[in-house]
User: Fold this.
Amino acid sequence: MTHPTLRQKLADLHAERVRTYDPAALKINVDQRATLVEAAKTAHFVRAGDRVAPFTVREVDGAILSLDDLLADGPAVLVFFRFAGCPACNIAIPHYEQALAPGLRALGASFTAISPQVPERLKDIKTRHNLSFNVASDGNELGRRFGILYTPDAASQAAAEARGFDMGAVLGTGRSELPQPTAIVIGQDRVVHFAEVSPDWMVRTEADPILAAVQQLTQARAAA
Assistant:
């Protein structure tokens, strides 16, 4: 049985919005995503070949995870997402539970989904989808280091305020900064071997290229 790709699932979400959203609200959403793509500072994005300095993130269950912890048994996969209530994230993150997490476990790699949202609020997405992998908060520190943060434009912020939505309060950070969806594979050499950043949050990395990057690393280690 062939399962839908993440791209198809997100396309279905957008199609549903086209059918049900107020046209003015939909235009603000689409325009914001297009602006982020056009204005993307790709030269600042994390990329393959970058060396990763030590870091820690706080897992929603309370543990402090260091880079050393994540690399203890093999490569580390990091996926950055926006926040626990983000509709696109609630499609992408459980998709990774099905399509990515089992393969990473088989390859001996760790998997951590990271958001700036404070742990006590971020925990909801892990509980709701019964996720088997780490879900952790970086408070945007790691996202800033990787050059993947953005702040919603004025039209998006005004629309959010009009419906009583305060992003800084939702995140618990007091700021509206969010990470652009990003997938990173870090080898045990502390070097990035795969990185993909999507300024459009309705576009996310599929599981297959992540698995391929990890498999290449594990095969190279076995050969050595």
